[in-house]
Amino acid sequence: MTLAQRNYYFKGGIILSAFCFLCLIALAGKLLPLYPTLSKTALYRSGGLFQSLVIRFFAAAPHAPFASVAAAVVYALAVSILIFVSFEKTQSPEILFFGLFALSFTFELLRILLPLQKIGNFPSVLLVFGTRILFFGRFFGVLSLFVSSLHAAGLEMQKQGKVILTIIIAILIIASRVPVNGLAWDSSLTMVCAYSSMFRLVEYALMAIAVVSFLLAAYTKGTGEYLFIALGAFLVSLGRSLLINADTWIPPLPGLLMLIAGTWFITGRLHQVYLWL
Question: Contact at 8 Å (CB) between 269 and 232?
Answer without folding.
Answer: yes
